[in-house]
Amino acid sequence: MTGIFLSYRRADAQGWAGRLGADLAEAFGDEGRFFDLSSIPPGADFLMAIEGSLKASSAALVLIGPGWLDARDENGGRRLDDENDVVRLEIATALARTAPVIPVLLGGARMPRAAELPEDLRPLAHLNAFELSDSRWAFDRDRLFDSLAQQTGLARLKGDLPDEAKIAVASGLEALDSEFGDVTGLRGPRAGRGQIEVLRGARLRGVKMGDIVGVEASPDKGKP
């Protein structure tokens, strides 16, 4: 098994899910790819797709935001009380497996009590929840990822830069035939989180910009 399954309700936690999904991809790479509702192709059977994704997953994260417990449908009924609700199906299927299921609390949400959940979801209330806060996202996220690595055996990628990294490129360098899309040595969503300073007149010769910070640099690169 490989990958992490994200269960979330779009109206409740879509922004957090996107951020966490991007961090998961950066931390675990292709081996730790994540699955969610957006992974299901048009026309596919929901239940079969959910079962297939969960079968391929090493763990499931249940993202619980402030409106998760009491989310309503167009008729005013609580979504979790609908046996065909996709989120309910995801969680019930995940709970029936032996792989880890981790409730992740977002936006100050509390863990629901068993009595507040339909019967097939009540085991969720007995699981140890993990709080992921906006104010200390990087710290909480790294603790969560360390726990995932320990529980699933997925290996975290190396070479991450701190979220507040500041990189200064010395002046007097010349850039010829260089690639500018990888300035910090990181690709994807995390690439824009650090602060990058390229001083006026800086130029590099025949090297990738990522090499200037020493990330995956060959012996003759990484130094101006």
Descriptive keywords:
224 residues, two-stranded parallel ribbon, 2 domains, disordered C terminus, five-stranded parallel sheet, 7 strands, single chain, alpha/beta, globular, Rossmann fold, 25% helix
What does this 3D model show about the protein?
- The chain folds into two domains: 4-152, Rossmann fold, CATH 3.40.50.10140; 166-213, no CATH class.
- The chain is 25% helix and 13% strand.
- It has helices spanning 10-28, 46-55, 86-95, 137-152; strands spanning 4-7, 34-35, 59-64, 101-106, 130-132, 166-169, 195-198.
- The strands form two sheets. A five-stranded parallel beta sheet has the order 2-1-3-4-5, sandwiched between helices. Strands 6-7 form a two-stranded parallel sheet.
- Strand 1, helix 1 and strand 2 form a beta-alpha-beta unit.
- Residues 160-167, 175-197 and 207-224 have low confidence and may be disordered.
Walk me through the topology.
Blueprint: E1 4-7, H1 10-28, E2 34-35, H2 46-55, E3 59-64, H3 86-95, E4 101-106, E5 130-132, H4 137-152, E6 166-169, E7 195-198
Parallel strand pairs: 1-2, 1-3, 3-4, 4-5, 6-7
Shape: globular
Total discrete domains: 2
Gap between N and C termini: 44 Å
Structural class: alpha/beta
- The name of the CATH topology of the largest domain is Rossmann fold
Tell me which CATH architecture of the largest domain applies here.
Answer: 3-Layer(aba) Sandwich
**Total DSSP E strands:** 7
**Percentage of residues assigned to helices:** 10-25%
Strand content of the residues, in percent? 5-15%
Low-pLDDT stretches are 160-167, 175-197, 207-224
Radius of gyration from CA coordinates: 21 Å
